[in-house]
Amino acid sequence: MTPAHARDPHRSDSVRSQRIAGILRDEILAGELPPGTWLRQDELAARLGTSRIPVREALRILESDGLTESFPNRGSRVPILSLEEVNTYYRMRERLEPLTLNESLPHLTDHHLDRLEHIQEEIETQSDVNRFLHLDRDFHMTTYAGCPSDHLLAITERLWNSTQHYRRAFMVLADPGRATIVNAEHRLILDAVRRCDPEDGERYLVGHIRRTRVELTAHPELFVKER
After folding, report:
1. Which fold has domain 83-222?
2. Is the pTM of this model over 0.90?
3. In sequence order, which residues have a C-beta less than 8 Å from that of residue 197 and are 6 or more positions away?
């Protein structure tokens, strides 16, 4: 019997678009497609063995995720951010993520708590920057996993996506001793999550994000001065 998606070309294109978006999302977040990289539909279609239609839709998906930006008559590229923009995004995170965490806390399960412990244990033995960034993101997103608002979660993830490259660039420059501070802050957040304490969770999380913002924006060489 012919699969349903094979009989429905629109569904087939949607599946391809999601697959392509997933591939490009991983490449952008891993730094393989750095800020300023133009994403040409013809080139991507040839590389990924598909037509331009699912590629075009995949780029729309990525734009809604904050991973690409489009320009009339020019196409799409991985966004370039200035120091001021990254500073603003982090300030938004300082205000938004405590709300996401507070909404999430009552709905987290023992499975989430066990996963957080496992992630943090691996973080504490990690020296590879890319692996650390993946685990760090996984840690925070797991603390938000109980949030019942899809809209709030989507905005939170979009802000993470937008600043990923600059966090990676900063981590390469960071003092190795910084890991001790990050681990201590994660342990405080995890303790607040275990106790389902929204006040401590907010206090520790705001300090964690703010310290990263201050340290990151102290390196203007990582940013462009104009778009």
Report:
1. Four Helix Bundle (Hemerythrin (Met), subunit A) (1.20.120)
2. no
3. none
